[in-house]
Amino acid sequence: MKKLYTFLVLLSILLITFLVYSNHFNNAFHFDDFHTIVDNLYIRDLKNIPSFFSNAQTTSTLPANQAYRPGLTMLNTIDFYLAGKLTPEPFMFHVSIFLGFLVLGVLCYYIFLYLLQNSLSNTLNNNIALFSTAWFLLHSANAETINYIIARSDSFSTLTIVFSFILYFYLPKSHKYYLYFIPAFLGFFVKELTMMFIPLLGVYKLLFEQNLSVKQWFSGKIFTVIKQVAIPLGLSIALFLFSRTKTPAHWDSGGASTLQYLFTQPFVMFHYAYNFILPINLVVDSDWNIIPYTDDRGLAGILFVFGLLIIAYRCSFEVQKRPITFGILWFFIALLPTSSIFSFAEVLNDHRTFFPYIGLFIACATFFRNSIVEHRLLEKTISKWAIITVSFIFLSLHGYGTRQRNKIWATEESLWQECTIKAPNNGRGWMNYGLALMQKGDYTNAIICFQRTITIWPEYAYGYINMGIAKGILNDKVAAEANFKKSIELNPNVPEAYSYYAQFLMSAGRIDEAKTFLAKGLSLSPNHQKLLEMQKTLQTTPNDFTAITTINPTPENYLNLSLQYYNKGDFKKCIDAAKEALKLRPDYDLAFNNICAAYNRLGDFEKAIEIGEKGLKINPNNQLLRGNLAESYQKKK
Q: Which residues are bridge partners to 479 per DSSP?
């Protein structure tokens, strides 16, 4: 009967979680999704999967972001294949990530239950574990990770760590040959944080298997535990060193001073803990910076960390409180990869807490259980119903908060508009909001946003790239070219700078210069979709494209012919050639783009909008077409 009750409650929790997240499955790609998924041609062919494990450049089109995460790229490739679309669309990615999230929730239930039972046997443990599972699945802060597609690296790697603990707790036979370590080992290829499984397991062994308080850890028993985990620990270190050899030299975490970054992190941890309790300060990209040594926040953060560690220390002396110690230490250990000596460009990200928060769920579950048992709250009818009512309201608020976060993550415009409000000193937030406005054809306000980016971050190349794009669309060619050149001067390792400058040069008929910049961009990112498409268009062919299409009437050759007519200013013939390409390939979105651009030059904005919308239905991620369509709407107004 108890098993049936647990099954039905778990099933209900999963169903409620689905209903809460039902408005997120079509949420857009955001931020790093574009260079790792949308523009990454490697994920469009399953045959490329073996190369992911030997070539880190397959993970991203941006050289500075090409970390060695072959498992992550493989997951993206599988989802792209399952979707069966010509270009990446978010739906299948969201479905896959969400199913993994539900599986993780069920595994967390068994983690919570095991730790509760092994610290104090009580009939209340099952209900506390179920409540904690619902809290984990509905927690508003976790929506930051589940909505952000490339953050599947956090959710999936956490799944492998929890699965390793499940094997260790419930299948003693897995201890032989360290079989329990297999999921965490495989998870490393998705994200390196799975290395933290070994120190977490060591803490568990000291607290529960060796039955030691923290004060007793530094006896001879700690060496016994180190010996027990020596082999998986050695494998983790070896795997980490191997991954470093596979990481390109141009990969860059973007971090500043290591010591200042470390000094900043205690207050960042306070922010994370605050959002765990009251998740109202969530934002996709914060404007926090390194904290100066003289700043009071640094001392406040240190006091907070010290206070939590004191609680963990004191709770370790009583068996029924030891999961609190384990949970608090889980929180800190899980944060080590991003909140210690490894400095990153962003001092905090709210999606980084997905793995660390499980420790706080463990600690809170134990605290609630101990408080209810100690004060015999369920023996009184009033207090019993008060607990049930408060729990229901508490979970409902988290469910509501999660649905609201889903709405914020629905589009680029809503996500980055919120960022400009909550993090007004974040230059990237203003830039991305400007991009969203530019896609709507609101170039005036987009330029204002890009100017804010350049003012806040005067050395940020992407701000100048997008300013150049906007100025180019408004026919301010001098300002557009100046901004493109400035972006390349500031950061010559950004492929996008070369692709958009080359596009600008092509539209001006400066073909030889365009070829030069395309070659430079492709030397940085050889499989960059936009660069490859433009290179294909500008490949050396006989001047008489009409003859070529007669001899070899392919969609690509008609598209080249269309572009040549466009560059010569013969827009009617440009349209005719592109239409011939569509006869051969009806879903050729690049041909729709040429027709839309030509109608814009002819001043027939109604037809430009009509053809542009048809093209976007085929490939919603065609940024060239989005820009031309936005111009159509702007000029029509």
A: none
Which residues have C-beta within 8 Å of that of residue 489, sequence separation ≥ 6? none
Q: 584 in a domain, yes or no?
A: yes
pLDDT value, residue 545: 52
Q: What is the mean pLDDT of the chain?
A: 91
Of 499, 574, 568, 564, residue with least CA distance to 538: 564
Q: How far apart, in whole angstroms, are the C-alpha atoms of residue 274 and residue 218?
A: 32
Q: Which of 355, 374, 407 is the last residue of a domain?
A: 407
> In which residue are the tokens 């991009």 written?
435
Q: Are residues 176 and 297 in the same domain?
A: yes
The total number of structural domains in the chain stands at: 3
Is residue 52 included in any domain, yes or no?
no
Domain that holds residue 559: 545-636
Q: What is the pLDDT of residue 546?
A: 59
Of all helices (H) and strands (E), which one includes residue 575? helix 571-584
Same domain assignment for residues 259 and 290: yes
**Residues 264 and 220 grouped into a single domain:** yes
Residue 307 located in a structural domain = yes
Cβ contact 29:88 at 8 Å: yes
Q: Give me the helices (H) in 409-542, please.
A: 412-422, 427-439, 443-456, 461-473, 477-490, 495-507, 511-524, 529-537
pTM: 0.85
Query: Roughly how many angstroms between the first and final C-alpha of the chain, as a whole number?
Result: 67
Tell me how far apart the alpha carbons of residues 434 and 517 are, in angstroms, rounded to a whole number.
25
Q: What is the pLDDT of residue 464?
A: 94
Same domain, 573 and 493: no
Q: Quick one: 122 and 143 in the same domain?
A: yes
| 3-class DSSP assignment, residue 170 | helix
Q: Residue 262: is it exposed, middle or buried by C-beta count within 10 angstroms (0-12/13-18/19+)?
A: middle
Residues 562 and 624 grouped into a single domain: yes
Average pLDDT of each block of 10 consecutive residues along the chain (637 residues)?
A: 91 98 96 91 93 92 88 96 92 97 98 96 95 98 97 97 98 94 96 95 96 89 89 93 88 79 95 96 93 93 97 96 98 94 89 97 97 88 91 97 97 95 94 89 90 94 91 86 93 88 81 86 81 71 52 76 81 90 88 91 91 87 78 79
CA proximity to 253, closest of 137, 321, 349, 164: 349
The tens digit of pLDDT for each residue in 256-309 reads 788 999 999 999 999 999 999 999 999 999 999 999 999 999 999 999 999 999
Q: Kindly report the CATH number assigned to the domain that includes residue 625.
A: 1.25.40.10
Domain membership of residue 249 (yes or no) is yes
Tokens of 187: 């998870």
Going by C-beta distance under 8 Å and a sequence separation of 6 or more, which residues neighbour residue 17?
Answer: 101, 102, 105, 134, 137, 138
For 34, residues 6+ apart whose C-beta sits below 8 A from its C-beta are none
Shared domain for 198 and 329, answered yes or no, is yes
